[in-house]
Structure of Myosin head motor domain containing protein:
Amino acid sequence: MTERKTQYCFIRDPEFAWLPAIKEGNNNTHAQVKVPQYKDEQSIVCDGGKTAKGWEEDEVPLSDYNKGVLPMQNVNASGDLKSFPDMVNLPFLHEAGILYNLKDRHGNGKPYTRTGDIIIAVNPFQWFKEIYTEKVRSRYARILVWENTEGDPRSQMEPHVYETSALSYKGLAFDGGDQSILVSGESGAGKTETVKICMNHIASCQQGPRSSSSEMSPVVQRVLESNPLLEAFGNAKTVRNDNSSRFGKYIQLQFDKGDKGQQEFRSREKATCVLAGSKCDAYLLEKNRVVSHEAAERTFHIFYQIVAAKDKSKYWNKLAGTTNESFRFVGKTDTDTIEGMKDADHFANTVRVLEEIGVSGDRLMTLMQAIIIVMQLGNITFVPDSKDDDHSVIASQREFSDLCELMCVPEASMEVALTERTMKTRNETYKVPLNPAKALEATESFAKEIYGRAFLWLVRCINDATAAEN
Ligand SMILES: Nc1ncnc2c1ncn2[C@@H]1O[C@H](COP(=O)(O)OP(=O)(O)OP(=O)(O)O)[C@@H](O)[C@H]1O
């Protein structure tokens, strides 16, 4: 009599998506399964139930599964998971198989897994310093870029995001084609960090085959240093990520490929393809965050930074003595520390980098005042005009006078701008009064527009400092 092989499978679960189980039998509509019970989510693994604290019998409807078949686990005869660095090789390729493979590697300190040419990164939320050392960086560059090996050199290496950077540099330097790297994932997945790791590595690839120096090229340094600026103005604390990018970006790294006429081009002896500059396109800034955010979240970092700045009254003397709560758009926050640094220290760093890219003196003053104007606009309130409910008048007179003084605009003109809308037809221009709700809406739109434009202006300044001239 032949012994029946244990059928290690997965079943759907509303809490954990997929659970490992053992299939005991089935009829036309249902499968009978034994489900190992683990201590907690972390300890749920594919191990044939060896570390489970008990078992439960269950019956699952086959109609919940693709073609009525329960997906099988990628395990050996004793039920232990067989982990694959490249998921193209998974014997059973399905969602549950992918998730448990990634979970196993993640648990073993391996945040990267390959699927063909794609690298999947599972955010470890702790720095595994040993996988980002200079030695590791140059090994990936040497083997993937500079050594002309037969076959796929990746087969001898652990999957790593350095593989993506090295292969794109190689494609650019030796095949001559432009390269694109797409980094995608949900909020907090680690996209921004991955881009930094990738850019740093591209910089070490261009140091050439024999480089062992950790010295960064000035271009890359400038590109990476501009990051805190984009983060100050474009990032905010959300419930998922304390430093969440609230805009999309397309970073173009510009390489000088040398003179193609010279034999040196495509030489494997020397790097002739060198980083000359970078350009960033920013889009879809979450402008709405300027005027409102969830209680557990924050608006853009720069607002807290400026309120916390030691020298804030330099930008507007009325900032002296103010707190986050002094401004409706900013409001109470449960933290004054982002990525281990206080808002006040971040501000000093923001100003230092701004000055480095040429935003200093009057330009710096204007930028900061634009930010303060946005905050002050949030403090303007409206009430119905006693003579006509459809008209509104400004209720917060002192805040309004401060705003006008800050903007250097006469109060009468500003009041008209905030409480009336100008309509234009083909033959005439006329004013429509705004009720308090509409006036508030218009004021908020004005604040969002100023912030959005200041952000794009800043991106242009960064590009002026980092883009290659030709
Ligand atoms: N490779 C990594 N090693 C260690 N920690 C990491 C790594 N990648 C990301 N993290 C951690 O995860 C946090 C969130 O990462 P990151 O800001 O890159 O996410 P994101 O995908 O860009 O999020 P968002 O879309 O919200 O901007 C980082 O602040 C860092 O603490």
Residues 111, 123-127, 185, 187-193, 241, 243-245 surround adenosine-5'-triphosphate (CB under 6 Å). Residues 296-470 form a domain with the Four Helix Bundle (Hemerythrin (Met), subunit A) fold (CATH 1.20.120.720). The first strand starts at residue 7 and ends at 13.
